[in-house]
Amino acid sequence: MKNFASQVRAARGLLNLTQQDLADLSRVSLRTIVQLERGDREPSPSIAQALKLSLEAAGIEFIPENGGGAGVRWRK
Fold first, then answer.
1. Which of 36, 17, 37 is nearest to 25 (CA)?
2. For residue 1, is pLDDT > 60?
3. For 44-76, how does the pLDDT look when each residue is reduced to its tens digit (9 = 90+)?
């Protein structure tokens, strides 16, 4: 899940969102987001899904590990 934490940080950067903004958008606690991004906590499947869906709804596309590395980008 380390890649996921990095993808969340990168997606926030693209969207110019603070951790609090993402917490409000996804309805995931700020504490959980901070712990996830620091690598202190693995997200449960439901939390990971809530974060991913919220970021996708805001225009982000998650790129899976495909030989070039996992990442995020703006969705077309």
1. 17
2. no
3. 999 999 999 999 999 999 998 876 788 999 998
More reliable by pLDDT, 19 or 68 = 19
pTM: 0.91
- Picking from 72, 38, 41, the residue whose alpha carbon sits closest to that of residue 54 is 72
Residue 62 three-state SS? strand
Q: What is the DSSP code string of 39-75?
A: TS-PPPHHHHHHHHHHHHHTTEEEEPPSSS--EEEE-
From 56, 57, 28, 23, select the one nearest 43 (Cα to Cα): 28
Residue 28 CA to residue 24 CA, distance in Å, equals 7
Largest CA distance in the chain: 34
Q: How many CB atoms lie within 10 A of CB 31?
A: 11
Which two tokens mark 57? 């709804």
